[in-house]
Amino acid sequence: MTMEKIVLPDIENLHQLDVYLKNGGYSAAQKAFSLTSDEIIDQVKKSGLRGRGGAAFSAGIKWSFMPKSNDKPKYLCINGDESEPGSFKDRQVFEFNPHQLIEGTIISCFAIGAKVSYVYIRGEYHKWIKLFQKALDDAYANNFVGEGMKQKFGTDFSCDIYIHKGAGAYICGEETSLMNSIEGKRGYPRIKPPFPAQSGLWGNPTTINNVETITNIPPIINKGWEWFASIGEPKHPGTILFGISGHVNKPGVYELPSGTLLTELIFNYAGGVPGNKKVKCVIPGGSSMPPLRGDQIEGIKMDAESLKIAGSAIGTGGVIVMDEDTDLVKVLARIAKFYYHESCGQCTPCREGTGWMLKLLNRIVRGEGSKKDVDLLISVANNIDGNTVCALGEAAAWPVKFMIQRFRDEFDARVKDEIMIPVLNKVHSMRKTANPLSPVQN
Amino acid sequence: MEFKFTTENIEKVNKEISKYPTKLPAVMGILYIAQEQNGWISMEVIKEISNILEVTEEEVFGVVTFYTMYHQKPMGKYHIQVCTNVSCMLRGGYEIWNSMKDKIGIGNLGVTEDQKFSLEEVECMGSCGTAPMLAINEDYYENLDKEKALQIIESLK
Questions:
Q1: Candidates 3.90.70.10, 3.10.20.600, 3.40.50.10320, 3.40.50.300; correct CATH number of A239-323?
Q2: Which candidate from B27, B90, B128 shows the least CB-CB separation from A88?
């Protein structure tokens, strides 16, 4: 059976405008302009397309939150911040199929009534920003975007697309933080409600979609929602760009129908584990998702609902595989370091908790941890989870909570019942009184 | 030392401003233009940008300190960034990082005396499928091992 690829079809040089046009490019936009915006939103709703950025929320329903009135300008933001460790799929779209992303952006702008769209791309992606800018320049020069599209498509609608380059902040992948970043501010997440559809960019109605989500739109409009809904798992239809990395023979991005078996992805597509070693642990959706035990991955399907039942989440579809020799305590300490580094510092539980967890984990890595430290880690994680403005809190807490829960033996083996911490503060031990304010006497 | 944009860069600055309904959002793009011209973001740069955008220096400074890609001190001619996050770590990211530290003789965010090299341990760069990796200024070098990484550094003039 040949597998249908929607987002990254196997067509050589598809990133070039003429090749894209030869393969039916921009015909979906033409078709969309003969429909009403309600009809497009309805199609996308019925297609079952769910966001590919992590939350897997229905794209059509998200669009329907946008107000119908036109008393305020509306905006569409395309999220290409892609900073979740283990995720490297959006850069494939910028490189290999940028015009389908542009066409999807036009259709989406038309559907929600936005005249301007900002494509937020992480700053480190210099190369991919240039590649996407080139495609965008070509689209402008040929009147597929901007004022010229009115005549090109015979419509009275036009929109502009701009790239907004990030500057190295993971948090800006969070939608409200992304909007603050576009507004030229520090990327602090905002409290919801109000939701972006009510009050987003500069207080105006705004929708934020992931790059991969929007790239799915043109084929849905062209081939109809029934076609899309029939691919993969009915509750999470379509293909997903699975980025697989870590201990596999052929790491990379594989576009496969949702519901593909995790084992098939690891052992068939990614060529299995080097040296035929056993799989100890798999993170199925980017580093913030709960890790799965390698001996429990049999039969797990890769879609939002199946992974929820399996005790994890689809996230960004970034699969990280770890073989039997992996030191999971070190891995978790590295993950904790990442979230400590990326916490924006706005909410106390996350700002303090991420650093605390990192210190505890480093202590265990050094062999100086006590049994109490493992329980304390879980306690700190529980006190971050759910107590922050944005989801970075959960992203930091989940790996710690679930890694320890599912691999408790690994952690227990590294700690001792009681630990003697050497006293380094000699001055303190020389004090005659416990009062820290009294002068030091010899 | 006073900082002024070159005539060519003023055009780029104006193009950035034209993308947004207000001036402040252009700050991120303009900081990149300034960094390219000046090498780093000095207080003079911040002052000039705040004048252009008609915002306070604090607003610009706040942006500079929030994002990691704006340099607040002069960095090396070759700014070497090594990823040690999970996917790279599993495939030898720390070996590369340690070999870079040894080879160049500086630590994280250090700069060599001749200002040829600076070094940074970075978070996930989106090269998980081609790990481990390092980046030199704007270019990615992927699918590395220790030897390849050292070869790349030695080839830098």
A1: 3.10.20.600
A2: B128
pLDDT digits over A232-261, tens only?
999 999 999 999 999 999 999 999 999 999
CATH number of A17-229: 3.40.50.11540
Q: What domains are defined for chain B?
A: 7-66 (1.10.10), 78-154 (3.40.30.10)
A31/chain B closest Cα distance in angstroms = 28
DSSP string spanning A160-172? EEEEEE--S-GGG
Number of helical (H) and strand (E) elements in chain B, helices listed first: 7, 4
ipTM score assigned to the predicted complex: 0.97
**Nearest chain B residue (CA) to A80:** B126
Is B54's Cβ below 8 Å from some Cβ in A?
no
User: How do residues A366-377 score in pLDDT, each as one tens digit?
Assistant: 999 999 999 999
* B58–chain A Cβ distance below 8 A for any pair: no
* Parallel/antiparallel/unpaired status of strands A239-246 and A252-257: antiparallel
CATH class given for the domain over A328-412: mainly alpha
H/E stretch holding A40 reads: helix A37-47
Separation of alpha carbons A374 and A363, rounded Å: 11
pTM across the whole model: 0.95
How close, in Å, is residue A129 to chain B by CA atoms? Answer: 11
Q: Say which of B31, B62, B126 has its CB closest to residue A88.
A: B126
Q: Does B32 touch chain A (CB under 8 A)?
A: yes
CB contact (8 A) between residue A88 and residue B129: yes
